[in-house]
Write a structure and sequence with these properties.
5% strand, 394 residues
Amino acid sequence: MREKVFLSLILGINFLILLLQVKGLSIGFHEAKILYGEPSPLQLLISSSLHFFGQNDYALRVPMISLHLLSALLLYGISKHYVSRTGDRLWIILIYVLLPGVTSAALVVDNAGLLIASLFLFGYLYLNYGRYALGLVPFLIGIDPAFAYLFFAIAMYGVYRKEYVYIGVGLISLSISLYFYGIHIGGLPESRFLDVLGVYTAIFSPIVFLYLFYVLYRRMIAKEWDLIWMISMSAFLISLLLSFRQKVEVQTFAPFLLLALPLAAQTFLHTYRIRLREFRRRYRILFYSAFFLLIVNALAVFFNHYFYHFIKNPTHHFSYSMHVAKELSNQLHRNDIHCIDADNEKLQLRLRFYGITHCENYRLDSEKVKGAKKVTISYINTPIYRAYVTKVNK
């Protein structure tokens, strides 16, 4: 009972914090493309939410927050197979919800959130029901092309364990996925290896990523190759190999490394507890340093508007692409303007979500023209966007 109370408290506070962040975000261009682009499972989920709860930012983002909370619960279930103490599992969840990449996936409409939840569901089913988890594979094929890395790992695990069911399901699923989605491997050798490592570091925070890498390597040397390790290690190695020839979308591979968090916790706690109390100090320092950095990263995300005070060019702000559109549309509506030529494809699509359609009656310009009305968007009393609205006389 006490365990459920603390888990509910962690996820409840996390839910409220994420919900408070929604007000300060506008729909991004990538999100608008998902919503108004080609049909997909994620589009269906978001469109259903908008249909039932109205066209607003909360209906847009609550499905992603819900997927995030589901992922945390599934990770908690996965952790039971690697750490026995309740307190240890709660620490895993706390660290998980504080990871920078996880926070982004919980708020931004992107396939990453759906990918994480689906992947964790597979891991949970596998650890509790064994090969029956393979029944989920046909559904995963239609969710995201990135699951090809999962199917590859399943096949490799089957080869390692001489389990022909895993080999067959893995190879067949991989073939179907590649047939429908293909895979891009190309470009000239240019080595983006360090770039990939840098993005991984940003997603996980430096200490957590380095320790995950250490645990994956250590288990490889010790030949502790269960399916969860195989999934994480396969995706990680593929991303590093691809980085030698092309730009790698790290956010596609990062969810597979998240699955290794319980493995990392198991290794850390075992290493920590087998030592006498006087020899545990450096491990405590490592843990508290990692936790401190996670808190700092979380605060930077939650109070990101304040950074505009210290940035000369607002467009250099890491969240600028998720700002402005909502406030701009509100000002246009207040001036009884419900359609405009934004002269910017990305901004035009974003404004569509807030009820500002495209027309030639009004024009939005970045430079002042005669008769134009100035529009200024400010965050924390700091101007971050200026434009001019002109009525076009025909």
